[in-house]
Write a structure and sequence with these properties.
265 residues, mainly alpha, two-stranded antiparallel ribbon, 8 helices, 65% helix, 6% strand
Amino acid sequence: MDNILFRFAGLPVYAYGFTIAVGLILGMVFALPEARRHRIKTTQLLDLFIGALVAFFLVGGLVGGIQNVGVKIILRPWLILSNVHMIVGIVAAIIFILFYLVRQEIVLGDLLDSIAPSLALVHSLANLGSDIYGNVTNVPWGVTFGELKLHPVQLYASIGYYLIFAVLWRYRRSKRYTGQNFITYLTLNAWLLFILSFFSEGGLSPWVYGVLSVVLTAFSLFLLANAPLSPYRRSHSNILTIVLTLCVHLLMMFFMVTFFLWRIQ
């Protein structure tokens, strides 16, 4: 699998960095109307997004680049996108976000609920650009490397996170307490990691993810049981809307599979 997706103005555009960038842009498109619904200004969310994006790629890219390439990463800045240290980048982005929230007096729970569906979408597209495979398998859709056939675990993760996005987006208006959408995202994310851990080596034990999933599920149900009942909201969805929505989701997953198969050719 070639990590260079295409070249722009003679410079290589790497698959992982490209899919993350596309995910962040689409995530912002979905997060903006949700932020306004939670009384967060568009300018505030854009400032938060740009600042977190710069912190993620600049700090994470520099640290990862120095680890993988050395100090010459400074002379070849385009390599930053392909050498992002995820943990360092996320920590840098979180530090910036917390600083900005305190300064702008934004409620953390409202922000997290606003961006929860977008986080799942970013995760989905980021995994689509990954080149990390799973365990050896004999399934017909396994990806062959020499004499080995491996689980396309990144494709499993991409589709799984997209399904999480679809669920969060569908029920985003049905929350009964501040932070519900984000806690639901964390819970579904834990269950997905639990499932994926059976198809990939390394990382935490499946039972760690399993215990975490059960704890988050119990915590989510506890908060839901103690939250006030929300006023009845009549659904305006009809059969045609439901069918069209389902077709869109199926089309998106078909695109993910097609893009993945094109990359491994």
